[in-house]
Design goal:
- With 443 residues, the chain is an alpha/beta fold.
- Helix content is 22%, strand content 29%.
- A hairpin with a 4-residue loop joins strand 9 and strand 10.
- It is flat, with a radius of gyration of 24 Å.
Length: 443
């Protein structure tokens, strides 16, 4: 059906029929022969809308009212949906969200890499709410509201949204945003705290307060009391060169922990370390990667962008040896500590710039049977030419950006002779347009 655009002059609103969905979850309509992206609208719906941005080739709009409702529409689980910019897909059912992400992955693979997987993996999915264990919260006192806000920015501005709670944040913090704002408002230096880093392990949670001015002893006591009352670790992060330090509890441990029960592993990490935000999905992701690597006791494996050893150590349980490579020396030190903590001996970690590696690096001269890589959003294009592709028969690529996965996958297929056997999304970030994916390449 062609999209329909009408103008009701009596009611002073414009309505249109939405005929498709963009990769970021916005409805697509054609208004006066111009593509219009409508936030909050779903395919098949007739909606009223208001234009928010007019651009050369398209317009952007927000939905005002829904005249014909899609069967895929659900009631958002968060009262702040549509105002807070943290989530964009809460109006879609879980299955529809995953279908959108799977199709986006396929479209990106085709468009940027000219590749299509032999088989599409079923989406990996875990908990849909309370899953987020890492976050950066903004802090701002708003004079007009006479209120200190803690949370995420509004959808269409740089202002902080007025949030009471966040349903995707782990409840240890997500249910306490209001209380967190209240306690900060009582501090003498409440205006000098711009953000809070959140990190949550299996059982422990840490809040890292960034502060631009020194906090008084009275302010510190209030934060200690808040941490004690809510079972939260409290850290302070002053301006450089002063280091981050732990305020509460009064012990020497600067580590949180998470476990991988399938592999009898416990990981220690600093609150500012990179870790996967969705612990339950992380466990499923690791299990799937190990399944597709088809590991043998004689295998030598290479783990690129290994971080604190999230993939390295569980893989080590199955192979002769694995080498983990990471650019950050701090992460390498943490990975070594985790290997020692779990009494794993058949692993070696190296610190290396994976954008511009040294061709003489010892780890590059070693033979590998299989490779796993989990690069940042920029992808792994620079490291691919350095790898011995003739020896590596299986490669598992974990991606947080389908566009760079597609680009790099195209290189692996068209330049280095691999086939894209399997690909699929992992619902690491439910209710958002962010896509985590896994692709399996074989020779």
């Amino acid at each position: 059906m062609n999209p329909i655009t009408t103008l009701d002059k009596d009611k002073k609103y414009t309505s249109t029929r939405v005929h498709a969905l963009s990769h970021d979850g916005r409805g697509i309509a054609t208004v006066n022969n111009k593509t219009t992206f409508i936030s909050g609208a779903l395919p098949g719906e007739t909606v009223t809308y208001k234009i928010t941005q007019k651009r050369g080739g398209y317009n952007e709009a927000d939905v005002l009212d829904i005249i014909d409702i899609s069967s895929e529409r659900v009631t958002p689980p968060c009262n702040h949906f549509g105002i807070c910019g943290g989530c964009s897909l809460q109006h879609m059912g879980a299955e529809a969200q995953m279908q959108l992400k799977q199709q986006t992955l396929l479209d990106q693979l085709k468009h940027f890499g000219q590749i299509t997987p032999k088989s599409l993996l079923p989406p990996l999915n875990a908990n849909l709410l309370g899953y987020r264990r890492k976050a950066r919260l903004g802090v701002k006192f708003v004079i007009k509201k006479n209120k200190l806000l803690v949370g995420f920015r509004e959808k269409t501005s740089h202002y902080l949204a007025d949030l009471e709670r966040c349903v995707v944040l782990h409840p240890l913090v997500g249910e306490r945003l209001h209380k967190l704002g209240e306690i900060i408002a009582t501090l003498s230096q409440y205006r000098s705290i711009p953000q809070i880093e959140v990190a949550i392990g299996d059982v422990d949670a840490a809040l890292v307060f960034r502060h631009l001015e020194p906090l008084s002893d009275a302010d510190k006591e209030k934060l200690i009391s808040f941490g004690n009352n809510h079972n939260l670790q409290i850290y302070l992060q002053p301006n450089s060169p002063y280091p981050i330090h732990k305020l509460w509890p009064l012990d020497e441990s600067y580590r949180l922990t998470y476990t991988l029960p399938d592999y009898h592993l416990e990981f220690m990490f600093h609150p500012l370390d990179f870790t996967q935000i969705n612990l339950e999905m992380n466990r499923l992701m690791i299990r799937q990667a190990i399944t597709f690597l088809d590991l043998k006791a004689t295998d030598h494996v290479l783990d690129l962008f290994c971080g604190i050893g999230n993939f390295t150590l569980p893989i080590a349980r199955h192979v002769h040896h694995i080498s983990g490579i990471e650019g950050s020396m701090d992460m390498v030190a943490r990975a070594k500590d985790n290997a020692e903590h779990n009494r794993i001996k058949n692993v070696t970690f190296y610190s290396e710039n994976l954008i511009k590696p040294s061709p003489q690096a010892a780890w590059l001269r070693s033979p590998y049977d299989k490779i796993i890589l989990d690069p940042p959003r920029a992808g792994a294009k620079e490291i691919l030419p350095y790898l011995n592709h003739s020896a590596v028969k299986k490669l598992v690529y974990v991606s947080c950006n389908p566009a760079t996965l597609a680009r790099d996958g195209g290189e692996l297929v068209h330049q280095y002779g691999y086939q894209l056997k399997h690909a699929g999304i992992m619902n690491m970030f439910p209710h958002t347009s962010h896509i985590e994916a896994m692709a399996v390449f074989e020779k």
